[in-house]
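User: quick one - fold this with LLP bound?
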Amino acid sequence: MGAPKSAAGNNNRAMSFYTKDKHLYCEKLRVKDIQARVAHSPFYLYSLAQVRENYEAYTSALAGIESMVCYAFKANNNLHILRQLAKWGSGGALVSGNELKLAKAAGFAARRTVFNGNGKTCDELRLAVDHGAMVNIDSEFDIENIDRAATSVKKPVNVLIRINPDLDPEVHPYVSTGIRDSKFGIRNEQVPWFLDRIRAAPLLNLVGVHCHLGSTIQDVQIFRDATFLMLQFVKTIRQEGFSLKYLNIGGGLGIDYERTNTLPRQADLIDRIRDLLTGDVTLIIEPGRSIVGNAGILVNQVLGVKANGAKHFIVVDGSMAELVRPSLYDAYHHIGFTEPVSGEVKTYEVVGPVCESTDFFGKGRQLATPHDGAGLAVHDAGAYGYAMSSNYNGRMRPPEYLVDGDRLTRIRRAEQFDEYVRLFDTT
Ligand code: LLP
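Assistant: Sure. Structure tokens for the protein plus LLP:
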């Protein structure tokens, strides 16, 4: 890999993306050269080495702990990236029937997949049972549907109870999931009812408990609090005669979007909970963002620069349709040019062409005034980027490319207008 190693060695910045002679590189390739080859803009660009480094940061931190890393597909479900993760031994955290099918297609071992969700349909549950995935119980109606699915498929199913731990991860309310009023999981005090219900269902095999606190978490102490609390549940449920194997603490570790170099990394999370794990449970974690987030960028081209009132705008060809996180969560993504840009430095709003004022990638950014056609990268876009893209304003989803050393591979074609209009066929 051509990227220089982190001098400090203790930040979680994507070292596979780096700047040399004012050019942005992805591993051994210059992004500007990739732009010339791709002939499509915008596009997503990923570094395989970075995905691998992030995944292995978990597996090496977990050495000596009975554990399973179940990558959360929702962050990025590109089949090529999934295949790599399956090859490296990752499990999968899934949230839909189609993600179950993708897990199968990518080669994930069924017994290393967990099917989550507060609104699983009966069809999806039958698929999960048939496939042999573990299933999380989320509510009273969910357990009835899981039981029915197992009866209709005539197979036992390994289940976990998703318990809402009522811990506040102090993140944006839209990505907080483990507090008391959340739509996910069951209330603590309901556990005995669920145990009785499971006892009455011969095809439901209770193997563990699950919780997920939220996303973009910056303080790993909350993972310790959750692990401690959930281990109490493991103990009391075992005392009720169940032989639990798994403690699943979900995903949620944040990444260094703001480039502060102060955020905890994978090893910090694991080290914070290590001494609590006594060896009689297998730990499951479900990271998404911290595996793919800093391994991808959205590459755009500058269409032009304009001013209105007191504001200066850089208008690029990418938009909230390709990357909605800034518009939806007011999320910060680092922005930089892919090539030398020498105009006057000003305070800019970086915006796209979508007909809506919330269509922006960054506000109040100090950037050099770019020439038309300059390449502009929105960083840390590998998680919940393409995965949350849309056709808003009639835009076709962009292609995705993967760099492995000096090799560039297109791993998803751009959507074509012809394919899109065919969806309107009435026959
Ligand atoms: N497990 C469960 C049960 C989850 O609900 C999630 C994410 C994960 C694992 C993975 O969390 P991660 O490690 O990626 O934080 N669209 C939002 C994020 C929503 C996350 C929802 N659940 C964003 O762009 O920030």
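One thing worth noting: The first strand starts at residue 17 and ends at 20.
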